[in-house]
Amino acid sequence: MAEAGRPGHGPLAGVRVVELAGIGPGPFAAMLLADLGADVVRVDRPGGPGLAINPEYDITNRSKRSVIVDLKTEDGPSHVLDLVERADVLVEGYRPGVAERLGVGPEACHARNPALVYGRMTGWGQEGPLAQRAGHDIAYIALTGTLGMIGAPGEPPAVPANLVGDYAGGSLYLVVGVLAALHHARATGTGQVVDAAIVDGAAHLSAMIHGMLAAGGWQDRRGANLLDGGCPYYGTYETADGRYMAVGALEQQFYDEFVTLLGIRELAGARKDLARWEELREEVAARFRTRTRDEWTAVFEGSDACVAPVLSLREAPAHPHLAARGTFVDHGGITQPAPAPRFSLTPTAVRGGPAQPGADTADVARDWGLPHLMKDGD
Question: Looking only at Cα atoms, what is the longest distance across the chain?
Fold first, then answer.
């Protein structure tokens, strides 16, 4: 591990995290803690989790260390509790009650370490009629109204990968909760349970939209509003080569620059005239179809028209701005997003590749003072 204060160590240097292996938002949350400098030990189960990709490419396990513990054996829970006794945070993503049945629930953990922050990541939450039901991102955001907001009118809602539910509504809220509870624990010596439910986080993300809905500034249907593609100067348009440009020229000064560079200055007055929005949309679409994406990128280069090319995942790292900032990095032969956000005094970096199940047992046993882990991990 890097020494405290060294570049790449991060502001959570010295924080110890135990992650009970799972899939999706739990590992991503633990990755973010590792990115920030925490010493994250992932407790993998024999045989690995479901939906597994090749561990060598599972970036959500970067900068972590892994030990293997079978929680269904007689000694398994005690090994995890030994880690918990030396940890600041635990992250688990089981269904409600499972950790308790395995002997590593909040009560057992707090008996060993009263200051522990116990982070629970689920889709439906620890309580409620659906708490025991299975689910995935798409179902969680469906119930919160967020999925129903996304997409074109008259077409099925568009699926935003698993970014809105698992990672934005789940992982990021878990990390916010864990860090807040850690602050409280360090001030008081008392830990607590953080119940991070994807349905809660995804609903919370739509706070501004609910305000606009209450004020009459948002229609409860897709493709009819300022920020959901209903507005002709906030959306995406196909170019001559079958690619796309993204337009977000909301403010008057940006809109004026947009219509000027696009060559439709005569339609500048249609901005506030809802009756002319369809006419404006058709003309904008027609203009964009006259040139390729790269040609339009050159037209809007250096302007404040708020127009950008829609890049693919493989194209994005090479964009000059992202390349200049180092938004993506290459580590171990894998191009991946760099840790975020950035810190002036405690900079972060990818400190290691994806943890391989059980590969770090000896190091963890030494660093955490648990020699018996070696016997269990062999």
Answer: 77
For residues 125 and 198, give the distance between their C-alpha atoms in angstroms, rounded to a whole number: 7
Q: List, as one string, the DSSP characters of 5-53.
A: TSTBB-TTTT-EEEEE--STHHHHHHHHHHHTT-EEEEEEPTT--TTPP
Neighbour count for residue 192 (Cβ, 10 Å): 19
Find the angle CA(100)-CA(106)-CA(107) to the nearest 5 degrees: 85
Residue 166 is a catalytic residue: yes
136 is catalytic: yes
User: Which one of 136, 184, 319, 331 is the catalytic residue?
Assistant: 136
360: left (phi over 0), alpha (psi -120 to 50) or beta: alpha
Helix or strand (DSSP H, E) at 117: strand 117-122
- Of the listed 44, 88, 137, 166, which one is catalytic? 166
**Sequential DSSP letters for 188-256:** HS--EEEEEEHHHHHHHHTHHHHHHHHTT-S-SSTT-STTTT-STTEEEEE-TTS-EEEEE--SHHHHH
Can you read off the two tokens belonging to residue 361? 């047992």
pTM over 0.85: yes
What totals of helices (H) and strands (E) does the chain contain, helices first?
Answer: 15, 11
- Measured CA to CA in angstroms, residue 225 lies from 141, 212, 286 at distances of 19, 10, 22
pLDDT tens across the length of the chain (378 residues): 344 334 458 999 999 999 999 999 999 999 999 999 999 999 999 977 655 688 899 999 999 999 999 999 999 999 999 999 999 999 999 999 999 999 999 999 999 999 999 999 999 999 999 999 999 999 999 999 999 999 999 999 999 999 999 999 999 999 999 999 999 999 999 999 999 999 999 999 999 999 999 999 999 999 999 999 999 999 999 999 999 999 999 999 999 999 999 999 999 999 999 999 999 999 999 999 999 999 999 999 999 999 999 999 999 999 999 999 999 999 999 999 999 999 999 999 999 999 999 999 999 999 999 998 876 544
